[in-house]
Amino acid sequence: NEQKNWIKSLKNTNGVVDATQFIISPSKEFIELNQKRIETNAILSTNTPQAFVEIFDWNIIEGSLQNFHNGISKVLLTESTAKQLISNNQPLSDLINKPLKILGQNYQIAGIVEDIPQNSHFDFSIALNTPKIDYWGSRIYIESEPNVSLPNLTQQLNQNIANYSPRLAKDPLYK
Predict the structure, then answer these.
(1) DSSP 8-state code for residue 171
(2) How far is it, in rounded angstroms, from Cα 41 to Cα 156?
(3) Which strand (E) or helix (H) includes residue 128?
(4) Three-class DSSP category at 122
(5) Rounded to whole angstroms, what are the CA distances from 130 to 67, 138, 145?
(6) For residue 71, how many other CB atoms are within 10 A of its CB?
(7) Bridge partner list, 29
(8) CA dist., res. 85 & res. 80, Å (int)
(9) Max CA-CA distance within the chain?
């Protein structure tokens, strides 16, 4: 897969511990669990689920972050989203491993995380583990080694990108 090779090339840069890629849809979508249907937005899709849960400090309430990155078609719900899918007095744990339909596809609920703090750089209501994401608008986050020289790391990443994709490196929109 070209996307995974791209991330792998970034991970192989000296000074990089890990890298994750994701995109957040701004569109409102319906999600369905059994007969319950709700509308939500901020659906995050990642093709690097293991790095996604390891780079960021998501506080798991129910389920497992490991279950999210094992296999595909798994989802993490935020607590607020999960509460919209259950009945009163029903424990959140009842949602784990249940099928959820999103964007016409079936997923399995792997875990429920605390709502994303308001001071976070990004927000999501649902995180999807998918094999491929759209490039346009995707974000890449890199975890660097402690005390790495950021100017040197930036230079190495830019060189790595130029080697991997000369066309991208010349693109004026590339940052």
Answers:
(1) -
(2) 36
(3) strand 126-129
(4) coil
(5) 14, 13, 27
(6) 11
(7) 40
(8) 9
(9) 56
Q: What pLDDT is attached to residue 173?
A: 67
Supply the pLDDT for residue 31. 93
- Supply angle C-alpha 63, 139, 19, rounded to 5: 65
Asked whether 37 and 31 are in contact (CB, 8 A), the reply is yes
* Planar angle of CA 127, 174, 58, nearest 5 degrees: 25
Q: What is the DSSP string of 100-111?
A: EEETTEEEEEEE
How far is CA 170 from its chain centroid?
27
Mean pLDDT in consecutive groups of 10 residues from the start of the chain, 175 residues? 79 92 90 91 92 93 94 94 90 95 92 93 93 77 93 88 76 67
Give, for 143, the enclosing helix (H) or strand (E).
strand 139-144
Identify the pLDDT of residue 137: 63
- Tokens for 132? 């491929």
Q: What is the pLDDT of residue 159?
A: 85
Q: What is the CA radius of gyration of the chain?
A: 18
Say whether 99 sits in a helix, a strand or coil.
strand
Tokens 């995380």, located at residue: 113
Query: What is d(CA 52, CA 66) in angstroms, rounded to the nearest whole number?
Result: 11
Bridge-partner residues for 102, per DSSP? 31, 105
